[in-house]
Amino acid sequence: xxxxxxxxLIVVLGIAVAQECTEPPRDDRRCGAAFGNARCRPGQCCSRxxxxxxxxxxxxxxxxxxxxxxxxxxxxxxxxxxxxxxRCGPDFGNAGxxxxxxxxxxxxxGTTPAHCNSRSLCPAATTTPAVQPQRQQHQHxxxxxxxxxxxxxxxxxxxxCGNSRRMVALTxxxxxxxxxxxPILEVLADHNIKATFYxxxxxxxxxxxxxIRRLLREGHMIAHHSKSHPxxxxxxxxxxxxxxxxxxxxxxxxxxxxxxxxxxxPYGQLRDDxxxxxxxxxxxxxxxxxxxxMDSDDGNTNQESIENVKRAMGTIGVGNSAVVLMHxxxxxxxxxxxxxxxxxxxxxxxxxxxxxxxxxxDECYAQCDAPRCFGNGxxxxxxxxxxxxxxxxGTFPAE
Length: 399
Description:
GO terms for molecular function: chitin binding; hydrolase activity, acting on carbon-nitrogen (but not peptide) bonds; metal ion binding. This is NodB homology domain-containing protein. The chain has ten helices and 14 strands. It has helices at 2-20, 74-77, 181-190, 201-204, 209-217, 236-252, 272-281, 302-316, 343-353, 361-366; strands spanning 45-46, 52-53, 102-103, 109-110, 157-158, 167-175, 196-199, 221-224, 262-263, 285-287, 291-292, 322-327, 357-358, 372-373. The strands form four sheets. Strands 6, 7, 8, 11, 12 and 13 form a six-stranded parallel β-sheet that branches. Strands 9-10-5-14 form a four-stranded parallel β-sheet. The longest helix is centred in the N-terminal third of the chain and has 19 residues, at 2-20.
């Protein structure tokens, strides 16, 4: 009898889950019953919080909807002429792209690594469909600080996981670096914590490949942090180089570049048009922070880093989420083995004493209620740092 009841419950739950994801995907990547029963795009699952994605926080036994089947026939879903809007794939009348362009996992035509990768709905077009319309050219008007939106796609950016969430994401910029990253990994393994590492190609090059593969083996998240770590007051050609070269480097390391979906700008600085290009067009989530250890400042001690974390949490408020900025580059901060103590261990112990849960940045973003995700604290320090909060104080230098 008990077995039959259990089986019936499984069937009922299965039907309920299936009914949650019956309608076409939404542009804002929300899904499930609370969002019109929208389903996700191929290869994605609907998380418990109603967000589409392919990470472990989206695809797990608690997902609202199971992973959508991958596209069976690339030719079939991109067989129609391109649209002037630049959208493509099965949700847009099976529209294709112009020659040399791929249809990204988010159904946008383009040539960047975010469009052309193993998760693309359609690979680069090699034959021109019957009609090749001229893509609409949107007249550039510098948006105000409160707008910062894109005509191509929604701006997706974050500086925290939102308020009223006891979550903390540990993040490390500028590596991975032999000799600097391994001690961090050992501490994280000892404490069973998964973190996010923002990779900078020129700081490590081919020597970083084994570490990139180790990061993934151990369950950490890798993300994009540019090629050469410049200040991003760059011509668009240099911006493309800074964005595209690291993706090729990661692929040369034997790692699927489609895993890299988040980007943290060097120094946190971006202009409005760069926000639109990187997120609205290329499809990256732009990651900032709301807790700075200041571990990269000359003369900063590990004890000062710990005090900086506690001071930031006094502003954020215990119970609200935190994204902690640290570094793992050569000849830089040694947050795990400086003479004045292991700051990373103490930071972990501090957040555990507050009953915080440690998450990766993709898990953090999966908790957000809107594409632009922010909470108390905000990205700190410099006025030119991009702030996901439209009412934030960050400003953008003119091009």
